[in-house]
From TrEMBL:
EC number in record: 1.2.1.5
Entries under InterPro entries matching the protein: Ald_DH/histidinol_DH, Ald_DH_C, Ald_DH_CS_CYS, Ald_DH_CS_GLU, Ald_DH_N, Aldehyde_DH_dom
Domain Aldehyde dehydrogenase per the UniProt entry, residue ranges: 30-489
Protein name, entry field: Aldehyde dehydrogenase PuuC
Gene3D superfamilies: Aldehyde Dehydrogenase, Chain A, domain 1, Aldehyde Dehydrogenase, Chain A, domain 2
Protein family: Belongs to the aldehyde dehydrogenase family.
Single annotated GO MF: aldehyde dehydrogenase [NAD(P)+] activity
Amino acid sequence: MNQSNIDALRTQAVPFRAHLIDGKLLPASDNGRMDVLSPIDGQLLTQVARGTAADMQAAIASARASFEDKRWAGQPPAARKKVLLKWADLIEANALELAVLGVRDNGTEIGMALKAEPGSAAGTIRYYAEALDKIYGEVAPTSSDILGLIHKEPVGVVGAIIPWNFPMMIGAWKLGPALAMGNSVVLKPAETASLSLMRMAELALEAGLPPGVLNAVTGEGAVVGETMGLSMDVDVLVFTGSGATGRRLMEYSARSNMKRVYLELGGKSPNIIFADAPDLSEAAKVAAAGIFRNAGQVCVAGSRLLIETCIHDEFVAEVTRVAEGMRVGDPLSLETAIGAVNSESQLKQNLGFVVTARAEGGEVVTGGERILQETGGYFMSPTIVTGVTPGSTLAQKEVFGPVLGVTPFASDDEAVLIANSTVYGLAGAVWTSSLARAHRMIRDVRTGVMHVNTYGGADNTVPLGGVGQSGNGHDKSMHAIEKYINLKTAWIKL
Ligand code: ADP
């Protein structure tokens, strides 16, 4: 992959993107369209269908019909596997086009997008394709006059609501296991990042997925997302996004058919640096990457840096040096370390957090500003705020932007206390040379993922999910399968 391949695609016209319903590309029922602005320059990139409630209902009806007639669930596992493997191949074959399209839509730096988006999506689809014929039912240890069988059945229609930070990667986390287990799916990409995921969905049909098994509807969360949430015909809702929307989805479920709701929400993940870290300069580099890549728009971002008091000043100076050396700008340049903030409203929100942090006594040691405004794009300098007290806004609320809050601690107990002082529990890290301390921190920090002497970078083999208000259920690994099956008991008298 070189820069000239990317540049060749950078200004390519992007056609209007329609819904994908029952295997057909369809405009909105009222022909409504939404403008898609590129965060790179704030200019119109293309338009997508502005879905109506009727569009979403048609997509759900199509998914339901495809599930009931077993056109997918009824196929032999080997046949389903073949289609999904072909889909993964097609995603890989189109990786550059998908990545560039996604970056023009959402602003992620291309170096990261290539790996994290089509690369990871193809890997995830392949992982579940390969798994699907290795999942067995069970025979229960009943008394000898009974045969107790436990079947694993698809749940039916899965609704998947996807955010804008990594649409293809997160989309694949839901679509891979959902489709592998024989479900039919309705997909709802985010308003500000639907293009690459819609194209990826279309490739599934090219790979041989029967029409109606995967439907995708673009539009506003409050319209098409709500219709999906309130549907009596969606059996499971899987979601990654904000806590506010997650809460709504649970309400929709309670108000309709009590569909199962799995939420992967935000975080305020602590990155805990002890003076006995094996390599403090490596720790500083990784800490900066762990919050600033993709402009901080990463649910597991290490947004709270907890530093042992005796190395606080030295470590802050080192992270600041690393942050100031990270190149912010054109997301389509391979040299860029930090791309664009996804939207103007997100940028304003990020800057608002900096104002509040200052007002609450924090000191902005670097960044804190919108930059490169002349490009028309939404760029923000990597921002470090010291003196962030555990109860303050920056320590408690997820920014979802390139803003790192720093808090000192004096002992292991204090580090744990601060680490566990938010409503979240998604990720975290500890940097230490002590095996015992590392294991104590793994045990005591309330979180779904804990890193030791690194930050980020897991693969499909391990689950990702939060505790507390970071959500429930897991993406990735064989544990994700549980969300997409029903257990059925057969109790047979012999
Ligand atoms: P953000 O505020 O960062 O955009 P959201 O949680 O609002 O995060 O967005 C994540 C996804 O949730 C998007 O696909 C969005 O369209 C969808 N969404 C937003 N509001 C609703 C809603 N009321 N019902 C269902 N989905 C929604």
